[in-house]
Structure formats: structure tokens, C-alpha cells
Amino acid sequence: MNYSVGQVSAFAGVTVRTLHHYDKAGLLSPSGRSDAGYRLYDDADLVRLQQILFYRELGFPLDEIAAILSDPQANAVDHLRARQRQLSEEIARLRRLAEVAQRAIEVQQTGVSLTPEERFEVFGEITFDLSYATEAELKWAHSHGQRQAMARAAAHTKEDWAHLMREAGAWRAELLAAWDEGEPSDGERAMDLAEEHRLHISRWFTSCPPDMHRRIADDFAADPRAFALVVPPSQQRPGLAAYLCKAVHANAARRADGRTPLEGDR
């Protein structure tokens, strides 16, 4: 039995334009023509169309489908296994994107809600980079410290944030002064500033032992987005992030050596 292009379009749920395209591409040419020159498809054509649509649903490109169907020796199983691997990788990627989106929602909901004017009043030039915050949330999602930091940040009031930022601003001014005056990164002054930063994190977010502080400082040195959370770009100096990182590592070593009292985190 023969079928017109309109009938096949209705059977298969594809457009007439798609069938014309398959014909021009040599992927599915109708077996006959009517006296008026219209395309006519037989049962074998419909079987081939089903195969094409099956491979298309799996995401195969048309040229690969043509190669599979045109070569009787082609091993369709190998093609399907390769596509299965690709789809599995894509599923994993999409799952990660879904997790990123969820974490981004959580990050956006963290902290006090401020108008743009209030945000500038409180945070000044310190900007919130959603991409970095989301990556950090993903990286430390299973960390007790990260969960505690998120919870405490969410509980801060506008007044808490203002106090926190004043404290951070005073510390930042001391850090810049130490850098500008040529203080060594492993000197007492720089290490004391590193310790102040560690205790600042403990007071406002989560307990920050030296090992955690080293990891945070490594992020400062490796990712400008992280360092911009403590020193805005307009105040940064070339090498300042690495300087702070070295000071943090030196302070952690000092504490491990017992050269400074093991003061409890406040």
C-alpha cells in the first residue's frame, strides 16, 4: 500500500518539510510517485522512517544515521553503545547543572534582604559574585563548616552586616598598610593580621581552624573572585593575594609550633 507525504506526516508525527528534507538528504526517498508526481511511500519506507526517528530521538546526527542504515555490515550496537556513553555523560552534566541551580537559589536566599542603596551602604565596593559563591557552596556542600556559615550568614541582620563590614574594613586598612610598608609576609605583623582574619571568620560565620584558613587563603591566591570578597579590586595591589596567602600559612605554622598561644575561637 502506498501513502502520500501528508499521510506519512500524520502517521509519524513529523512535518512534511522534515520528510522533504530527508528525501533531499538521501536519507529517506519515497519508493514511488503518483501520476501527478507526488511522493508515495510504501510499508518498507515507513519501517525505515521508524528507524530514522528512533536514532534521531537518541540524538544521532543525520549523517551517522545514514551511515548505519546504508551499510548492511554496520554494527548498530557499537553506535548505540557509544551514544549510551554520551547520553550518560550528558545526564551527569545536567544533574550537576540542576545542583548548581539549586545551590545558587540557596546562596541568593542567604543573608539579609537589602535594597541596592542599603547594600552599597553596608558593603561598599565589596561585590557578591554569585558564580563564585555557588561554586564554593558546591565544593563545600557536605562540610559542617559551610553549612554553619550559611546558616549564620542567613541569620545576620543589617546591623550585624554593618558591624561585620566595619571590622573587615579596619582589618583591610591594616593589611594594605603592612603591604605598602614592606612588611614581610612571614613577619609578626602580617601573621597577626592573618590571625585576626581567622578569628573574624570564626566570630561571624563558622569556627575556622588553621587548616581551613589555609584552604580559604589558597582560594584568595588562586581565584580573583574570592580575593575580591576581602579586598575590592580598586584597593588591590599586584601580589597582595599571594602575600595574604603566605601570611596565613605562616600564621598556621606559627600556631602549630606553639609560638603563639592557642587562643580559643571567639
Automatic annotation (TrEMBL):
Transmembrane segments: none annotated. Residues 77-104 form a coiled coil. PROSITE patterns: HTH_MERR_1, HTH_MERR_2. CDD domains: HTH_TipAL-Mta (cd01106). It holds the Pfam family TipAS. SMART domains: HTH_MERR. It comes from the Bacteria. Residues 2-71 form the HTH merR-type domain. InterPro entries: DNA-bd_dom_put_sf (IPR009061), MerR-type_HTH_dom (IPR000551), MerR_fam (IPR047057), TipA-like_antibiotic-bd (IPR036244), TipAS_dom (IPR012925). Keywords: Activator, Coiled coil, DNA-binding, Transcription, Transcription regulation. This is MerR family transcriptional regulator. The lineage of its organism: Bacteria, Bacillati, Actinomycetota, Actinomycetes, Kitasatosporales.
